[in-house]
Amino acid sequence: MDKFFVYFSSYFIEAIIFLIYFGAFFPAKSSALHRSVVLGCSYAILLGFSFLNLSGLNLILYALTNFLLLYLFYDVKWYTACFHAIVFSALMSACEILLIGILSIITPTFLQYYDTFPYSFIFVIFSKGLFFIAAYLLIFFFKKEKYHPQKDWHSLLLLFTPVATIFTLATLIKVGEYVTLPSSINILVSISAVLLLVSNIFAFGINQYNQMKNAQYTDMQLLLQKESDTATYYEMLLSQHENQHILIHDMKNHLQSIEILNSAREHEKIDAYIHSLLQSSDLAESARICDHHMLNVILSRYQCQCCEKNISFHTDIRSDVLSQLPDADLTAIFCNILDNALEAASKTSNALIELNVYRKEHTPFAVITMINSCRTDPFAAHAHQLVSTKKNPVQHGFGLKSVRRIVERYNGSMNVYYDKKELLFHTIILIKQSYPDL
Fold this sequence. Notes:
Elements: H1 2-25, H2 32-50, H3 55-73, H4 78-106, H5 108-111, H6 119-142, H7 160-178, H8 183-249, H9 251-263, H10 267-278, H11 293-308, E1 312-317, H12 327-345, E2 352-359, E3 365-373, H13 398-409, E4 413-419, E5 424-432
Helix pairs in contact: 1-2, 1-6, 2-3, 3-4, 4-6, 6-7, 7-8, 8-11, 8-12, 11-12, 12-13
């Protein structure tokens, strides 16, 4: 029973290090629960083979298992998975060999009993502590940070916990070399080792959780800033369109001025005057897609982008459907879903984007439906979750989260799904509005 407990603890710690190490370097292709269950079952099989006491076989199976788990459940090439599995397994073995070398110097008596409990358990905690420190240092120095190119050296202070644990265990080992401890004290030592192990797990687990939440918060803040900047940009375009209307309205005055110059035979001034009018940005051609000024500006921009990328862009926007929606919210909704659609459709031949906005009859709901070409199922590779494929997480990531947040504010709903047969991605949004006839 003691031997099983020691082996179980060893593989349990290694499984945690596996999730932390490979999760830091590679994006996962399945949910955390799925990965944890398969990892637990795989390491349980390794646990069974460990009772054969065949070190060479155990190491080969360990490396092979890590390779298969890494290749199947993380987005990585097979040769990269092979390299990292070998490095991971070699690092684990090196830590055990290093510990044996250290113990042979500082406390050779311990090595005579390290196969017996509780010495074997202390040896496991000691060696896996070294393994974790080595893995953490590899993550710190070689992982590419998403938001902070500069290394955060303060995070190295977390290593104080496993270092303190190793020092404490080394002290207990040294005490055991000079004092014969009764069985009750050995039990307390084992419990202390378990508590130290749990404290290490909690310390780094909480740190990983905080980092994840901070990254999500940063993503959301960046997205909110983008939405604010986008809304300002479209307000500027809307102002330009208004200036265009004013310029057209004032064309009569311009023609009168040209007529006066022509009467005076000021041909050079006439040429300069006409040239300045033609070069005015207010005379830029403006498409008329719908009667909502801000939405018309937004759709005109995406229509031009679709034209440049040979994407068919069809819209049917009914009048006064979203007239009560503030420009900032309207910009965030349509820019995010159209960004997603444009990104997916640009990777597809004969692509299309179809956008419809209408009122659901006899209800207070405005309906936004969009269909866009999408070559691959965006749900399949990420445990039925939409995950960004871009460095800036806007495609089917935080962009849709932002849309959902706005929609829920108006007591609405959003549904997305993928049609594998037609290779089309569908977005359906309901937004509650107040209409005069209700």
